[in-house]
Structure to design on (151 residues):
C-alpha cells in the first residue's frame, strides 16, 4: 500500500492537524459504515471481526468530534487509518479528491515529522478515544489492546 505520487500534495499546505481530523471525521461519519461493507475493486471485504470492531471504533469516534478531540485522540485516528482498523479507508477520497491517508500522513508529518516518532506512538496510546473504543470492544478480549501494548 502507500500513497501515490501527488496524493500528499493535494492536502492544502496551510491545513492544520485539526483541519485534517475534521475532514476524516466528517467522511467517516457520513460514509464509513456503508463503505466498510462494500467489497473493494477486486472483491475483498473487511472481515466480520474487524467490521464489528470498526463499528465500535466508529461509535467511540462519533463521541470525539473535532471540537472535543485531543491531540492524542487525533493521533490515534491517524494511526488507525494508516495501519489499523480504518486502513480499508486508506485510498478513499472525500468530495475534494483527497485521500483519508493523505490527511492522516500530512497531519503526522506536520506535528511529528513522521509516523515512526516515539512521541507520536506515545500520544496514540494515551488517547481517551482508544480507551473508549476498548471499553466498547471489551479490553480482556481485544486483540487491538494487545497491538497497542506492543508499540
Amino acid at each position: 500500500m502507500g500513497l501515490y505520487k501527488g496524493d500528499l500534495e493535494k492536502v492544502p499546505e496551510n491545513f492544520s492537524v485539526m483541519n485534517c481530523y475534521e475532514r476524516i471525521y466528517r467522511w467517516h461519519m457520513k460514509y464509513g459504515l456503508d463503505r466498510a461493507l462494500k467489497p473493494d475493486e477486486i472483491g475483498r471485504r473487511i472481515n466480520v471481526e474487524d467490521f464489528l470492531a470498526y463499528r465500535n471504533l466508529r461509535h467511540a469516534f462519533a463521541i470525539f468530534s473535532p471540537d472535543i478531540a485531543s491531540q492524542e485522540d487525533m493521533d490515534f485516528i491517524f494511526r488507525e487509518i494508516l495501519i489499523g482498523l480504518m486502513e480499508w479507508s486508506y485510498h478513499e477520497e472525500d468530495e475534494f479528491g483527497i485521500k483519508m491517508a493523505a490527511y492522516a500522513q500530512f497531519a503526522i508529518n506536520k506535528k511529528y515529522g513522521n509516523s515512526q516518532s516515539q512521541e507520536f506512538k506515545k500520544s496514540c496510546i494515551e488517547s481517551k478515544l482508544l480507551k473508549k473504543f476498548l471499553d466498547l470492544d471489551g479490553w480482556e478480549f481485544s486483540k487491538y489492546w494487545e497491538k497497542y501494548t506492543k508499540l
Q: What stands out?
A: DSSP finds seven helices and no strands in the chain. The chain has a mean pLDDT of 88. The chain has one domain: 12-149. The two ends are 21 Å apart (CA to CA).
